[in-house]
Structure formats: structure tokens, C-alpha cells
Amino acid sequence: MPIKCVAVDDEPLALALMRNYITATPQLALLQTFEDAIAAAEFIRKHDVELLLLDIDMPDISGIDLMHALEKKPMVIFTTAYRNYAVEGFELNAIDYLLKPIDYPRFKVAIQKAVEYQEYKKQKGQSDAGHIFVYVEYKLLKIELAHVTYMESLEDYIKIHFDNGPTVMTLMSMKKMLERLPPDQFRRIHRSFIVPVAKVRAINNRKAELSSGDVLPISDSYQDFIAFWKGQ
Questions:
Q1: Fewest CB atoms within 10 Å of the CB: 8, 120, 158, 167?
Q2: CB atoms within 10 A of CB 194
């Protein structure tokens, strides 16, 4: 089944280009296009929209603010003429971020990501106790949680360490990552670290000793982890 989508852009020429790209793409079914973001928001509230192609720079409300305001959030691909919105866009779990002028081959790459993501959600759900999905170098990667040693925050990225392979980097905040993880299995112990509770073998001098041999600090803000760990 084609993905039901809506395109929003206050520039008529840019919106016409999106319309042409969408109609040329068999994986998509265009429900409506909007130059007005407020009208688009009202339409999305009333209809089953699966994918939103959304311009960021609009006069009444930005695309990012629009996504924050939506109670029912579809998949989103942001479009804009400015690179500096990329990090904030991915904080909203954007499927992709297209920099104008957008050519059709790059558009198809973004749509393929949406197709893959929707398929994963249908098969497994966005996450469960066994795995999560994250983007790594423009590919949707399945992360088996049983093999995660710990997660480390590096500015706008998270480095995921494994016991059975090399680390990977994904563009995501710690807050967003925690929302995806089972809270009974993973806990934050520091502004820079998330650990699998079962792999903490000892706590000594406010440091967590992991089964991998890694030793990570437990900050004052996350001292409640010690009580949680003792109760396991």
C-alpha cells in the first residue's frame, strides 16, 4: 500500500515540485498539499496522514514548531534552504532532511527511508524489549539490546558500544534515546552515559563497573540509580 502523504511549503514553486515528485513516486499517495501550515495542521488532525513533507521556514509557524504542536505525529521529512536546522529536525525523529534545491534522486533516497521505517513498524513496532531501530550513516539499523555494553553521549550524537562488534554513531539526544529503551533494562547514570542494568556487576565509589570491564561515573543527579540497581 502506498504511503499516504501531505506536502507543506509556503513557496508555490517548491510545493509544485514536491507535488510532481510525489506523483512520480509509486510508493506515495498524495492526499493534499498546503501553502498554509495552520490549514495543514487541521487536515492532519482529521485524516490518517502517514508521511509529512514539511518545509521548515514558513511565516506563521515553522515546520519544527508545527511538528511539536501535532498530537498525532506522522513520519516527517523536513525540507529547507538552510543546513542549520538539521540537528533540531532529527531531534523530532525526522526520517530525513532535504536541502533545497532538491533533486529527484535525493528525494527518492528519503522516501526509501520512509518505506523501510514504515515496514519495520508494521513488522515489529518501533521498539520492543529486544531491539530498537536507529539511523546510522543514512541507513536504518536494528540494534539488538542484548549486545549493548553502554551508550555514550557525544554532543548531538550517541555512540553505542557493543560486546560483539564495533561501535556505531547515531544523531539523537539522550532524552530521545531513553524514550526508546525499556526503562527496566536501561538507565541513565550520568549526563553522558546510559547503561544496561543487568551488565552493571558492581558499584564502587560512585562508579559503575560493567561486565565488559568498562568503569563509568555515576553523577550526583543520577544517584537514584544505585537504589534501583540494588533492588534488582
A1: 167
A2: 21
